[in-house]
Amino acid sequence: MTDEAFEPLDPLIHSPLRLAVLSVLVSVQQADFNFLKKATDATDGNLSTHLAKLEEAGYIRMKKSFRDKKPLTTCSLTDKGRAAFGRYVKALESYLPGRTK
Amino acid sequence: MKDEQAREDIRIIKAMLDRTRSATSESGTLFIAWGVLITLALIATYVLALLKTYRWEWMVWVGITVIGWVYSAIYGYRKDRRTEVKTYIQTAARHLYIGFGACGLLVGIILPRLDAYSHEAIVILIAVITGLLFFVMGGLFEWPLFKWCGLVWWVGAVGLTLVKGQNRILLYTLLFIAAYLVPAIILQAKYKQEKSAP
């Protein structure tokens, strides 16, 4: 298989934690920071850093509010993020044997 | 990138989708609560029909509806405060429940009180909209059992036209237990089993 047969992967998604976050958000309307932390087994700091990168890229939307006087961060996927995730999954297929373009 | 890495990415995507799906599965508690309330109301309706005291029937149903709505509102409010994730399916299902409740109120109480049709037709029309509720729920949550129950309700609606009076209420009660209460209990047992699995 030549290199030309592989589709380029979005470097913003090509990180296990960012991919995991987008995989959760693609199937939900919105998810709290705590849910994402539990689902991805990430630490607070690590998750915050990666969420900031995804938000900066316009892939996710973060809303900060309060629940029971405690800060609450809610994340959701943007249209741009959904499209990028779709392209990423399609590109992944080109790396699997028998599924090249 | 090697194909092993691609496989690892796909494994991550699948694992996240599975975890999210498991975390957002429905317990069926509200469904069972409504099922118990309606079963009690059906038994009361049957007893009142036997005693030929029909004028109290509508009060039983109004009472059950008010209790059910208050319980649903409190349950929904508490669930919302605990929930960490919201899905499109949950939003769609919530609108479906509210729509079903509004249709039930119109078809079962308001329209018959306005003499739009005979009281005898109520259970038939309720069976039709219950069939719709189950069929759509089955499709939304990918529960084939509920889709089958939807079909049973629609066949049952036709079957209800073949019997009259108290027997119609009795047949409806049996239909309700078999195609509403039992599937809801099965759903909750499945939910508990999934939650207790390692």
Task: Write up this protein.
The complex is a heterodimer of chains A (101) and B (198). Chain A is α+β, with helices and mostly antiparallel strands. In chain A, 47% of the residues lie in helices and 19% in strands. Chain A contains four helices and three strands, in the order H-E-H-H-E-E-H. Chain A has helices spanning 16-26, 33-40, 44-56, 79-93, and strands at 30-32, 60-67, 70-77. The longest helix of chain A has 15 residues, at 79-93. The relative contact order of chain A is 0.21. With 198 residues, chain B is mostly helical. Chain B has helices at residues 3-23, 29-50, 57-82, 88-113, 122-140, 144-160, 165-196, and one strand spanning 85-86. In chain B, helix 2 packs antiparallel against helix 3, helix 2 (29-50) packs antiparallel against helix 7 and helix 4 packs antiparallel against helix 5. The longest helix of chain B is centred in the last third of the chain and has 32 residues, at 165-196. The chains are: A alpha+beta (101), B mainly alpha (198). Strand 1 of chain A pairs antiparallel with strand 1 (85-86) of chain B.
SSE arrangement:
The complex is a heterodimer of chains A (101) and B (198).
Chain A: H1 16-26, E1 30-32, H2 33-40, H3 44-56, E2 60-67, E3 70-77, H4 79-93
Antiparallel strand pairs in A: 1-3, 2-3
Chain B: H1 3-23, H2 29-50, H3 57-82, E1 85-86, H4 88-113, H5 122-140, H6 144-160, H7 165-196
Helix pairs in contact in B: 2-3, 2-7, 3-4, 4-5, 5-6, 5-7, 6-7
Low-confidence stretches of chain B: none
Helix content of chain B: over 70%
Mean pLDDT across every amino acid position of chain A: 88
Query: Helical amount among residues of chain A, as a percent range?
Result: 40-55%
Output the number of helix runs of chain A.
Answer: 4
How many β-strand stretches of chain A? Answer: 3
Strand tally of chain B is: 1
> How do the SSEs of chain B run, as a string of H and E?
HHHEHHHH
Interface with most residues: A-B, 26 and 27 residues
